[in-house]
Amino acid sequence: MRSFTFFERVSRACRDHGSNFKLVLLCTTVSGGGLLAYGDSVGTSEAVVPEKKKVVVLGTGWAGTSFLKNLNNPRYEVHVVSPRNYFAFTPLLPSVTCGTVEARSIVEPVRNIFRKKMVDIQFSEAECLKIDAANRKVYCQSNISNNLNEKEEFVVDYDYLIIAVGANVNTFNTPGVTENCHFLKEVEDAQKIRRTVIDCFERASLPSVSEEEKKRILHFAIVGGGPTGVEFAASLHDFVTEDLVKLYPGIKDLVKITLLEAGDHILSMFDKRITSFAEDKFRRDGIDVKTGSMVVKVSDKEISTKEMKNGGEITTIPYGMAVWSTGIGTRPFIKDFMSQIGQTNRRAVATDEWLRVESTNNVYALGDCATINQRKVMEDIAAIFKKADKDKSGTLTVKEFQEVLDDICERYPQVELYLKSKQMHDLADLLKESQGDVEKESIELNIEELKTALSKVDSQMKFLPATAQVASQQGTYLAKCFNRMEECEKNPEGPIRFRGEGRHRFKPFRYKHLGQFAPLGGEQTAAQLPGDWVSIGHSSQWLWYSVYASKQVSWRTRALVVSDWTRRFIFGRDSSQI
Length: 578
Description:
Elements: H1 2-16, E1 20-28, E2 34-42, E3 53-58, H2 62-70, E4 76-82, E5 86-88, H3 93-97, E6 107-109, H4 110-114, E7 120-132, E8 137-145, E9 151-157, E10 160-163, E11 168-169, H5 177-180, H6 187-204, H7 211-217, E12 219-223, H8 227-247, E13 256-261, H9 272-285, E14 288-291, E15 293-298, E16 302-307, E17 313-318, E18 321-324, E19 328-329, H10 332-340, E20 349-351, E21 363-365, E22 370-372, H11 381-388, E23 396-397, H12 398-403, H13 405-411, H14 413-421, H15 427-435, E24 444-445, H16 447-453, H17 468-483, H18 485-490, E25 516-521, E26 524-529, E27 533-537, H19 538-550, H20 555-571
Parallel strand pairs: 3-4, 3-10, 4-7, 10-21, 12-13, 12-18, 13-14, 20-22
Antiparallel strand pairs: 1-2, 5-6, 7-8, 8-9, 11-19, 15-16, 16-17, 23-24, 25-26, 26-27
Helix pairs in contact: 2-17, 6-7, 13-14, 15-16
């Protein structure tokens, strides 16, 4: 009892005394051992915990998921709002349409992605209805109906808003497209296409259907000669020739696949060698490639096209299933948001080079719903000249220009692209070109001569493509910026502010192109990799397998996708409608 009374007194003394009470006690026990006790009582005053900033993320696509995966700063309270509670690996959607890969293999629940992170993240399965930029509010509607078959609405406040909602399919207001065509943007779209393909074969197998009607039912039309349309056409051809002909031998000769493209060539964004090879291969495979054919109307049984090369002649094509895969459009609430901030008559939200929406301070947009509005060098030429002319002489020497060269190239990436296109090492070579045969060290330029030297630099400006690769890199970039927000506020690491003082907080976003693939069927793929390196054939197909397996968002989906590919090699594609 004495020992307990003693320790109670020590404990009371630690509580009663002020900020710093220390005790060292050495007690000898009966066995001769020793016990060392050390107590340190710290004052009751607690450190002030900064209030967490509220970050609202709209969307769980490539951009939004990439942001969530890379956000590690616990000082944020994140609320994710999306109509789907999973991330979908969209490049494999064409494989889902034909049973090569199962839908469950390319989706990962978003809660699995961020459940182990130290950041406070909340998810709501809901759709954004409106953004109130002035009051920093997002109005949402739940995707889940209550007992009265009503969908609940709620409002979310934010300090930072990240818009990563992707885009709608662009029908170009073509009559009948929405009512009669399939799209290929979501997992549900791919599953619906898969069921429709099997339905067409089953309907054509009925004994009561005429030969002419069978031909119409088994005519598959794909509108759009981009990567998605081409890959779906190739996947469908393989599905038909390798699997369905064995199950439906009586109608195999009636199947027809037509690819409609308004431009002069399919895969126009690829190297001409790939375009030519793809068109030749499709023709050899029996896929009817119609270039210069613009779809003007779609009915329930016919597609009307306008031939761009033959004086605008209108022709009709009977079809059984049509897939529309061309262009992206703006979501309605994004249009409303753009009108609030004065960005009307645009296809996508305009952002600066740091992915911040123009005319806002705390809203960011990335992925297919946004486009970077890169500033032109000629817009800031006077500010650049003033900042570089440190001695205020009214002329620039090569030395003065070299001192701001890195900042110019970082702030205006088109400068570096222009120098590479002209095979120049630095801006001094560009200045020398404008001055003629003059030694670099003796070059001096006034502002008009500088304008002349840089007049063609802005011709290298390009808009980024609406691809998963771009969206993923933007999400990663923005997460790193948020992780280091406080640090970079104190120690900015970006380029010089040519139109202001100091430096930008962060380096601007710079897209790094890692190459692109175009699967062409028959275990052949076209690959266009950095450095204008082009590879076409079976080796590129295996490269495609390895890249798409490694890019899966989790080990679970990676294992499932590889398993599906293995199953397809052994047993063929799944032709059931489930």
